[in-house]
């Protein structure tokens, strides 16, 4: 009986030793105060790195936007001697057709000098879209000053602009139409990618920003300014015309560069 009791006590002591050893091993795996300090330092370092990346992304985004603006400006300058004529009849000599049209429709004869002219896109109605390069920007200005004579005809004459500028014009044309519907007495002019509004003896200029929508020339909120000067709550109206398609005859389809 004594031996059995001794064996039982020995077994119990062994189990206790194993339990204490296991607890000791588990305790050794728990984080100490120093471990927690190190973990906190690593978290702060990660947060600091994340904030730095965010700041760098803001800078990169701003630089990318500036680069986009410069590229659009350079492309527009490279296209400044070009005009797009829509509704030109099928022909084997588009240069001659456009030159004759400038005389018969716009009242311009030998004043304009066409370098080259060729159709772009596919013909759907027997009439073509023709890209025309003129010898100088003066020729372009001369034709643009006479474009009103082509009103109510099958001929539409447009500037040859970069894709970015056409998208912005598309949205500005949307807002010009919307403002004219709501405020019939407003005077609105679109100059390339600037919408000029004259109403209540006040003239303001608007532009289109790819991120902020309609903005003022000073990059303020365009809809808020419209509401201020017109008394109409434009803030609850949709702030974009959408991409693609066309508004008031302005297409967003691309045009090739003339060589």
UniProtKB/TrEMBL annotation:
Protein name per its UniProtKB record:
RRM domain-containing protein
The record lists the organism as: Rhodnius prolixus (Triatomid bug)
Taxonomic lineage per UniProt?
Answer: Eukaryota, Metazoa, Ecdysozoa, Arthropoda, Hexapoda
């Amino acid at each position: 009986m004594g031996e059995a009791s001794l064996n039982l006590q020995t077994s119990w002591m062994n189990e206790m030793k194993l339990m204490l050893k296991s607890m000791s091993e588990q305790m050794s795996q728990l984080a100490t105060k120093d471990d927690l300090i190190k973990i906190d330092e690593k978290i702060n370092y990660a947060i600091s790195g994340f904030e730095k990346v965010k700041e760098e992304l803001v800078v990169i985004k701003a630089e990318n936007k500036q680069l986009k603006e410069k590229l659009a400006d350079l492309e527009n300058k490279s296209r400044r001697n070009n005009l797009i004529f829509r509704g030109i009849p099928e022909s084997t000599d588009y240069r001659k057709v456009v030159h004759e049209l400038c005389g018969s429709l716009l009242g311009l004869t030998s004043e304009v000098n066409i370098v080259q002219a060729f159709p772009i896109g596919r013909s759907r109605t027997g009439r073509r879209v023709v890209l025309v390069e003129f010898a100088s920007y003066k020729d372009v200005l001369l034709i643009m000053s006479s474009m009103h004579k082509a009103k109510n005809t099958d001929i539409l004459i447009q500037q040859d602009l970069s894709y970015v500028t056409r998208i912005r014009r598309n949205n500005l044309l949307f807002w010009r139409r919307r403002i004219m519907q709501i405020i019939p007495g407003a005077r609105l002019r679109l100059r390339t990618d600037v919408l000029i509004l004259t109403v209540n003896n006040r003239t303001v200029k608007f532009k289109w920003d790819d991120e902020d929508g309609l903005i003022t020339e000073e990059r303020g909120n365009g809809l808020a300014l419209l509401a201020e000067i017109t008394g109409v709550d434009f803030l609850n109206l949709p702030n974009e015309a959408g991409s693609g398609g066309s508004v008031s005859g302005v297409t967003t389809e691309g045009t090739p560069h003339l060589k």
